Amino acid sequence: MKPLEVDKVVKRFGGLETLGGVCLSLEEGERRVMLGPNGAGKTTFFHTVSGVHTVTSGSIKLFGREVTGMAVHRRVKLGLGRTFQITNLFPELTVFEGLYLGVQAHERERAIFFWPAMRCKKLTRRLDQIIEQWGLGDIRETQIKHLSYGQQRQLEVILAMSANPKLLLLDEPTAGLSPAETSSMTKFLCGLGRDITIMMIEHDMDVAFQLADRITVLNFGKILTEGPPKEVQNDPRVMEIYLGELDALETGSAHD
């Protein structure tokens, strides 16, 4: 059963078509990187898969189940996790408190009112496991706003992982990071188990080719090419995109 199957997905905003019949599927445990210039439709694609945007037409399946019209929270329950291009954390909370909110949101105990959260031993045990697993003990009581940007990006991925997703969508996880932070994030992502399928948007070509099993290149809302990293790297159309020579591609791009 494929974690993700997208069939002829179109998304229009008024008269503007941002996705033009995208077809794509992922294999279990795969690492897929989506490349493309700014405005190619990459984040819009993630929004349609995660349910933030409804599709204009087409079909989306998660783990064999039709989810095209399904709400975001129901897709999460099926095993979908997601991070966003802009870090989305509570800066005044400590790392422990931020993780607690993330874990609690996916547990039955979230609906228990008038009960101090820290009295729930099940949640605190789960949180202790996460902190130990990801080596967060030294920053456990640190306010999130005092973490480096790279640490905040990693924490966002860990929060997404706290729901035990089977499919994880990462929207530019290395955006805004220094070279050292990018290297740390890349090692962090490489260490995630193959029980999780990962699809990520990435602009850093070195990171993309290091992490990807396959690469999909999106241009003007359509898939330009798709394949193993070396094959995509040697495609002259991809070179044109990243050199900024887009005029020739407006009429020449096609699905592979």
Question: Could you explain the architecture of this structure?
Answer:
- With 256 residues, the protein is of the alpha/beta class.
- The chain is 34% helix and 23% strand.
- The chain contains 10 helices and 10 strands.
- The protein has helices spanning 42-50, 72-78, 95-104, 121-133, 149-161, 179-190, 205-211, 229-233, 236-242, 249-252, and strands at residues 4-13, 16-26, 31-35, 57-62, 65-66, 80-82, 167-171, 197-201, 214-219, 222-227.
- It has a 6-stranded mixed β-sheet, with helices on both faces. It has a 4-stranded antiparallel β-sheet with strand order 2-1-4-5, covered by helices on one side.
- Strand 4 and strand 5 (65-66) form a beta hairpin.
- Helix 3 crosses helix 4 (121-133), helix 3 (95-104) packs parallel to helix 5 and helix 5 runs parallel beside helix 6.
- It is globular and about 50 Å long.
- The two termini are 23 Å apart.
- 34% of the residues are buried.
Number of strands: 10
Tell me the strand order in the biggest sheet.
6-7-8-3-9-10
Could you spell the SSE succession in H and E letters?
EEEHEEHEHHHEHEHEEHHH
What would you call the quaternary organization? single chain
Computed over alpha carbons, the radius of gyration is: 19 Å
Biggest sheet features: 6 strands, mixed
Termini separation: 23 Å
The dominant shape is globular
Low-pLDDT stretches are 245-256
DSSP helix fraction: 25-40%
Break the fold down into its secondary structure elements and pairings:
Elements: E1 4-13, E2 16-26, E3 31-35, H1 42-50, E4 57-62, E5 65-66, H2 72-78, E6 80-82, H3 95-104, H4 121-133, H5 149-161, E7 167-171, H6 179-190, E8 197-201, H7 205-211, E9 214-219, E10 222-227, H8 229-233, H9 236-242, H10 249-252
Parallel strand pairs: 3-8, 3-9, 6-7, 7-8
Antiparallel strand pairs: 1-2, 1-4, 4-5, 9-10
Helix pairs in contact: 3-4, 3-5, 5-6
